[in-house]
Design a protein that fits this description.
Length: 281
């Protein structure tokens, strides 16, 4: 019996080593350091204030983002991805995972259709603005207000299935893709937006990280909101029934051979966070 177990362990070890060393590895990173001066009467929203930026009033030297993105790819179309982000300033510092997922990207079939899927923790494909590694932007210092909110409160813990009709293989000027996803652990999304409104920064909430809610007199002793929690956990599952799982459906049309500034892609996304109330971006 011990001999059989030893053989099995040896076979599994050889298979593991073969899989490990047959993969291709890539590591990319970004470091964004800034010297800034902010003129604001309000404390930063990241520190529980009503300010609209990541930094409070005054002069600052900060690491707006230090990100690393690791990808492990195999020749069967399967790949593993992990993204770590760090942020440091006088009022805010954090380091941890923002994405971790498995991805499958198949070869196109004879009809020009490609199948892709993702499983894990990742951002939904909402826009092309955050187009650099570690969900950074190549074109702006801060994300737009809507993408600042997405970085703060939106993340998918689930699976995504995507089918793309390739224009080059169908004598068409566009690629057309359809995506569907089911996910959990994002029920409180929108709470921070409701409390502090729209903001603009490059800050991303780390997985399992909590963010402070701004203080109001009503939250003080004897106030109507005295029992209100001081922080919000965006990546939390409140309900436990399958009927309440979130989902999104997306359709995108990408022009071929045309830059985004000349003709941007057409995207339609319908998101349903808890299976009852949806919105379209």
């Amino acid at each position: 019996m011990k001999h059989v177990i030893g053989i099995l362990i040896t076979v599994v070890s050889i298979f593991y080593v073969k899989v490990l060393y047959s993969a291709e590895y890539s590591l990319h990173g970004i470091i964004d350091m800034r010297a800034s001066r902010v003129d604001s009467a309000n404390q930063s929203y990241l520190d529980g204030g009503q300010g609209k930026f990541a930094l409070a009033d005054g002069q600052h030297l900060a690491v707006a983002q230090a990100g690393a993105q690791l990808a492990i790819e195999w020749d069967n179309g399967l790949s593993a991805h992990g993204v770590i982000n760090g942020f440091y300033s006088a009022d805010d510092n954090a380091l941890g995972f923002t994405e971790a997922y498995l991805k499958y990207r198949g070869l196109p079939n004879s009809a020009g259709y490609r199948v892709q899927s993702r499983l894990g923790i990742f951002y939904p494909e909402i826009s092309l603005e955050n187009n650099a590694y570690a969900w950074a932007s190549k074109d702006t210092l801060n994300s737009s207000m809507i993408n600042s909110w997405i970085g703060e409160e939106i993340r998918v813990l689930g699976s995504e299935f995507k089918v793309t009709r390739l224009g080059r293989m169908n004598n068409n000027a566009f690629d057309l893709s359809l995506s569907a996803s089911a996910f959990v652990n994002n029920d409180p999304a929108g709470a921070l937006l409701a409390w502090h409104g729209w903001t603009s920064s490059s800050r991303q909430t780390l997985w399992t990280e909590k963010q402070p809610l701004p203080w109001f007199p009503a939250r003080g002793a004897g106030g109507a909101l005295e029992g209100q929690a001081a922080q919000s956990d965006p990546f939390l599952e409140i309900d436990i029934t399958c009927e309440q799982n979130g989902y999104y459906l997306a359709k995108a049309k990408y022009p071929l051979g045309i830059t985004i500034t000349e003709q941007p892609p057409i995207k339609l996304l319908m998101v349903n966070m808890v299976g009852k109330h949806g919105f379209t971006i």
